[in-house]
Amino acid sequence: MLAVFDFLANHFASLTTTIRSSGEDVLPNIYCGVLPIILAPLYFFTKTISKKEKIATLGLLAVLYASFNLNWLNYIWHGFHFPNDLPYRQSFIYSFFLLLIAYKTFIRLREFKTVHIGVVGAVLLGFVVLFDEITSKNVTSTTILFTLILVVLYVIILTFFMDKRYQTASLAMLLLVCTASEAIMCDTATLNISVDKTPYVSDYDDFRDIKDNLDLIEGENTYRMELTDLRTRMDNSWYYYNGVSVFSSMAYERLANLEDDLGMMSNRINSFTYNPQTPVYNMMHSLKYIVNNSTVNVLDSSFYSPSVANDKFSAYKNNYYLPIAYLVNSETADWATGSYMDNWKLEYASDPFELQGDYFDRATGAGNPFRRLEISYVTYSNCSPFSEDLSASSFYFEKTTADVDGNTTFYLTAENDGNIYISFNVSGSSSGNVSITTPKGTWTHSADQPCILDLGSFKKNESAQITVPFEVNSGNVTMLAYTINEKTFKKGYDKLYENQMLIEEYEDRYIKGRFTAEEDALLYTSIPFDHGWSVYVDGEKVSELDIIKLGQALLAVKVKEGNHTIEFKYSVNGAKLGISITLFTLFAFALYFLMKRQIKAISTKYLPSFQKVDNSFTEEIYLPCVSEVKEPKQIIVKSASHKSTGYVPPVREIITPDSGMSVNKEVIIPTDET
Fold first, then answer.
1. Would you call 539 helix, strand, or coil by DSSP?
2. Which residues lie closer than 8 Å to 392 by C-beta, 6 or more apart?
3. Most CB atoms within 10 A, among 152, 485, 507, 674?
4. Radius of gyration of the CA atoms of the chain, in A
């Protein structure tokens, strides 16, 4: 629940912007200047704004405040989706509305007296001092100081506006300078503007050169690729390529969960980031090219072939690429769908290699291609030796001296030629880097971003050292190491390759292809499951019962034996209903305003507002002066009552201020009563 004091205090200057959705200071970002919070209270005391508008304004402010307190309203504002961080994203609407109220007050400023401005300023100063005493969330001494100064400054300027001795244009310029200075000093107080832009843009043209060359080979944007070292969570948006890395509030949480369990670096909510993965993962996700931009190249192995390169990037083709869809054994439908999936406690959550291997075995029947590689030995720095046997995967650690840096180094030795893959996890880690040393070189990876890492190819008896830092005094560290049985892997890959879908058309929302199934099977796709996808086999729409949510996150289709053409069509779920509601609402608004305008025109033309008093109709009409007459005259129109109906069409006597002449005009009212 958002406390009233915390909400009001977040209107003050020089506040820390709320980014995270967790913590004790999760507040809406509503600060839009100190001037609006001086003018907004005066809005409700203006004389020329109707009570109806003021009540509507107060109601809307109440709804917006409730939206910051009620979770279901917040959920609706976010498009029926809870955001991951950056909470209360509708707060800009509140800020805009507050500015609108302040503007309406400002243009009516001379309706007030100087004392009114002074009272509002004094009350606001009292609130600021009070908030300092009760130590409201997100309020610092800097916030209090800036807000106090700005309140005094704006009150003085507003009183100048009410004095006709001062030129309005000069005061407007002074006000502009003050508001701009406030924005510069207060809005940027907590922003980190020290990030250098150069690293993000310096190699853009080099990458586009690689991408353009690959497009000439494959066709533009008809394949997936990834980088070995992503600077951001969405390099594929910056460089404009089809990848697997995602950071989006619209990403499905279950997809992020699955990707994390498969060994991707993920927050398990709405993002997952690629690091050099296993050939099984690359095959599952239809990755055709991996582009090396790391200081150490781990792609020089039997799984990749060099393609195109320049000074900064080297593209490698995945030798075991599979398209976006291919046939797998029917039993794959049961992959990762047990009770552990329903409770989101994956059976293989601590071992992504086993989860990948289980998929491969079910899909191909060739067996699990991963082989566990035991840790050779461990060395310690400010850490007691592990009590567990080194054949375990998780170890309890305890520093020998608390609050002093400690670490342990795991040593791995290759039993045969081939790649080595690791996955680690450290409890309590929030900073520091895992250091990795192989015959290819040394590099680091963040300790609090666990994932599968490809260490590259090794010759028999070559070793790797992985040094893991410990941030807490005691806890658990997990270290998994695996190699690939290439014979098993190739056997399974060859079966999947023979059963791949041949793509005929490929667009963002439409895919068409053909395949041959020797028996009833499952068509696996690396397309994230979404109810907006419709699948057609040989022109007939596939029943929802035959569409599988594989691993609770990926789209798969049950298919029959034979030669088939298949189409995937995507439309936003609920789009037709949404468009219909929007069009109906626009029509209703247009009809309302048209009728309102027509009624106003009729009432103006036929229904003058006569007052009936003692069988006389009177109306006060004020005509503009066009000569020396300064004040318009009051016109009184009288007429006798009609004996049968009690009503006689009145005669309006108009006396113009200029000539003093009278003009008689009969006004016909089409009703029997006035």
1. coil
2. none
3. 485
4. 36
